[in-house]
Amino acid sequence: MKASLIAIAIAISMQANAATDLAAHAWIHGAKDCTTNRDPAIEVLQFDAATYVLRQNKCVHAEAPFIYVLFGEHTVFVQDTGATEDAAAFPLHETVQGLIAQRMARSPGQTLKILVTHSHGHRDHTAADSQFRGKPGVTLVEANAKAVRQFFGFTDWPAGLAKLELGGRTLEIVPAPGHQDEGIAVHDSRTGWLLTGDTLYPGRLYVKNWNEYRATIARLEGFSSTRAVSAVLGTHIEMSAAGTLFPAGSSFQPREASLVLGGEDLSTLHKALQKAGEKPQDIDLKKFVVAPISGLQRFVGSVLKWVGGP
Known about the structure:
Blueprint: H1 5-8, E1 12-14, H2 19-24, E2 42-48, E3 51-56, E4 66-71, E5 75-79, H3 92-106, E6 113-117, E7 138-140, H4 145-152, E8 162-165, E9 170-175, E10 184-188, E11 193-197, E12 204-207, H5 210-224, E13 231-234, E14 260-261, H6 263-276, E15 283-284, E16 289-292, H7 295-304
Parallel strand pairs: 1-2, 5-6, 6-7, 11-13, 12-16
Antiparallel strand pairs: 2-3, 3-4, 4-5, 8-9, 9-10, 10-11, 13-14, 15-16
Helix pairs in contact: 5-6
């Protein structure tokens, strides 16, 4: 599926600024035969005038990660860069530039910088970094311990919070290791969204470090109790609307569960992890399944830099 930005004809779906509308959205979800699939490589959903959710087509890469693009007055925040490096097959930088051009047309004279960060460092969330690296007006925070802690100013990881000012829009950054060592969560003041990466989403929640993961969920539950959280949004959908897991690596997921989880789901996960204690164990919570990874999987993950992909 190689095409330019114009050829893939990215359609922007207008949505009201309400989490219920986002929850009801049916995303493109691959095909039984990807050779016949004509969906765009990147689906772009406009949530409000300054907020976009992008999803990679499962026929481009089965992981089909979500990417969040948040506009401030002077900075465009891009969380994650997807699972495919090739710009012809997956024109992420071009797509973001297209969104910027649309905004500039509405606000002549505005200058916007691009800030690219990552929910965590696994390959299915960092593959297209090369499309942004070294580009004019782009700051790319590399997905490694030194870069993440230095950029956000964390001196006692995973303690503390960091703030990002995009211009009239504030993001709070919460350390979130457990799935991956340098994982973060992001709270957006404009939408009330809590972006949780692979830490929490409707699917298999792979846990690399059990105690760090339990501490992260406790941290996020406590953080959310003092913030307005309208939606908890992760970076994958792996559940059907009926509450069953799709096969790992599937390129076709009809009738998916909603992307949107809520604060109550975070609390449910926190309670289940506290009840489980310090012994890693599978936990089926209907909307998502906690899945501790084995020593062998951790080794493979350290080599491949991501776990659970095809």
